[in-house]
Specification:
The complex is a heterodimer.
Chain A (H helix, E strand, L loop, with lengths): L3 E5 L1 H18 L6 E6 L3 H15 L5 E4 L29 E9 L3 H13 L4 E9 L11 E5 L7 E5 L2 E5 L5
Parallel strand pairs in A: 2-3, 2-4, 4-5, 5-6
Antiparallel strand pairs in A: 1-8, 7-8
Helix pairs in contact in A: 1-2
Chain B lengths: L10 H4 L1 H19 L12 E6 L5 H12 L3 E6 L11 H10 L4 E6 L4 H6 L5 E7 L5 H15 L9 E5 L6 H12 L3 E5 L12 E3 L2 H4 L5 E4 L17 H6 L3 H4 L7 E3 L22 H20 L9
Parallel strand pairs in B: 1-2, 1-3, 3-4, 5-6, 5-8, 6-7, 8-9
Helix pairs in contact in B: 2-6, 2-11, 3-11, 6-7, 6-11
Classes of the chains: A alpha/beta, B alpha/beta.
Chain lengths: 173, 312
């Protein structure tokens, strides 16, 4: 039997996104060369929401999608479900890339995203924005912008959407 | 627990569900091919053997490129210059290759069924790159991907009218492409002289190209397979070209929104007397460029996915 615990509601998510948008603007004065890149699949909606907040507060920035499945270190172990295709609207060479994902866990997806981005060029800098940092890192990776720190146990799953954040125990659905 | 070994030997073996997944994966692979560095480490450490025992240029190069772009190592094996010309049997050859612990063998062979035979002699995943007159599933996949992409329909080809013209009976391309197009919902018609049609296939048949050429969504011209003609079912002296070749006069009757396709290499002057590069309907260069992406999808599907639970 799995138990679900709602830890953030839709209003909490909205406020967290607004705060992260402000932090991204503060860190990158003038938003020069900033491009938001959502990690497929969970980071895509979040990158779009962050972009519309940033556009509301300051000015529009380009948004892209990156599919990291060909750079994962668990290739050959898991099924691969094709999702969104990588789409970077600007040349990443010289850009300030802000990677966006819903949940930061082991860090392996972010490492794969860094490797993928490097195939396209040499960004001036790469930053990381996540809505939920749930701990249990297995690589030396740390987020620059965090919506919510959420202590979890390794066997729980964290489900994130614009409607909120839910922790499911025992593997979850 | 090891999963059942999988192969890509015919369209029917792969089945509709996996075909649709392979076509989706092809889109990802095509994007990789557009990158400044068109190479990913997905299959690093895997070894793919290209075992080509029948002449081929584009398919062999296409598989070789596909494997390298996924980071796999490739071993090439061709009939001439090998011990096969010393009389070594195919079985001995395959067992030798198996001892080298290859992950996949891409095989082209003049005999139908060779890929099934080879699968019994080794542990590698087998990809059929053409066996006799029987099957050529990666050609069919790239044809389906090309049609889906050019028409904007993706993997749903329902209601599209596809005419495959020419040497059906000798063509593994005709067999596999008919299978995939029908599986995805297209209406396939085979067109040619009755001596070159195959009455065993469950499709519509037509012996008059001019009757249907103005109606079709896809006009697929086959190569005249002179090397497979045992007798001479086609009269000499240009009659075939007059009745079934794509001449400039016929080309003018193709709808402007239709697609012209050909598996290559073209016998200029036989099945085509028009230069397809001058026709906006031509999708022939797309077929070649998507061919690499399709073969990347096939190799990745065979060697790059596993049975563990997906991580969120």
């Amino acid at each position: 039997m799995t138990r679900h615990k709602q830890v953030l509601g839709p209003d909490d998510v909205r406020r967290a996104v607004t705060r992260m948008a402000h932090e991204i603007i503060e860190r990158n004065r003038g938003l020069v060369d900033v491009v938001l890149v959502g990690l497929q699949s969970g980071g895509v909606w979040l990158a779009e929401q962050l972009a519309s907040e940033i556009a509301r507060i300051e000015r529009p920035v380009p948004v892209g999608v990156v599919d990291v499945s060909m750079h994962r270190d668990d290739i050959g172990l898991r099924p691969v479900t094709p999702g969104a295709i990588t789409d970077l609207p600007v040349d990443v060479t010289g850009a300030c890339v802000v990677l966006v994902d819903d949940v930061l866990f082991t860090g392996r997806t972010v490492k794969a995203a860094l490797d993928t981005i490097t195939d396209y060029g040499r960004p001036r800098s790469v930053q990381l924005a996540v809505l939920v940092d749930r701990g249990h890192r297995e690589l030396p990776i740390r987020p620059d912008f965090i919506g919510k720190n959420l202590p979890t146990s390794a066997d729980e799953t964290v489900e994130v959407s614009a409607d909120g954040v839910v922790i499911a125990e025992g593997g979850g659905e | 627990m090891t999963a059942a070994r999988r192969h890509v030997r015919s369209i029917d073996e792969v089945g509709r569900e996996r075909i649709i997944k392979l076509l989706a994966l092809t889109g990802h692979m095509h994007e990789i091919n557009q990158r400044p560095v068109p190479k990913v480490p997905a299959l690093r450490g895997r070894v793919v053997c290209n075992l080509f025992l029948e002449d081929s240029t584009r398919t062999r190069l296409s598989f070789d490129t596909a494997a390298k772009r996924l980071g796999a190592d490739t071993v090439a094996f061709t009939g001439s210059g090998s011990s096969l010309s010393k009389g070594e049997s195919l079985r001995d050859t395959v067992e030798t290759l198996a001892a080298m612990r290859l992950d996949a063998i891409v095989v082209r062979h003049r005999s139908a069924g060779a890929p099934w035979q080879i699968a019994q002699w080794c542990e590698a995943a087998i990809v059929n790159a053409g066996d006799g007159r029987h099957a050529h599933p990666t050609q069919a996949l790239l044809d389906a991907y090309t049609i889906g992409r050019r028409t904007g329909r993706g993997a749903d080809l329902s209601g599209l009218r596809v005419a495959i013209v020419g040497d059906i009976v000798n063509s593994r391309v005709a067999r596999s492409t008919t299978a995939i197009a029908s599986m995805l919902g297209a209406e396939v018609t085979h067109v040619g002289p009755s001596t070159l049609l195959d009455p065993r296939l469950d499709v519509q048949r037509c012996t008059d190209l001019d009757q249907i050429i103005g109606d079709v969504d896809v006009l697929y011209m086959l190569r005249m397979q002179n090397e497979r003609m045992d007798a001479a079912p086609v009269p000499p002296g240009g009659e075939y070209t007059r009745r079934f070749g794509l001449t400039p006069e016929r080309a003018a009757n193709i709808r402007t929104d239709a697609l012209l396709m050909h598996p290559g290499p073209i016998n200029h002057g036989t099945e085509m007397t028009v230069d397809p590069s001058t026709m906006p309907q031509s999708a022939i260069t797309d077929q070649v460029s998507y061919g690499v992406a399709v073969r990347m999808a096939v190799l990745f599907d065979l060697l790059g996915t596993g049975e563990m639970e997906e991580e969120s």
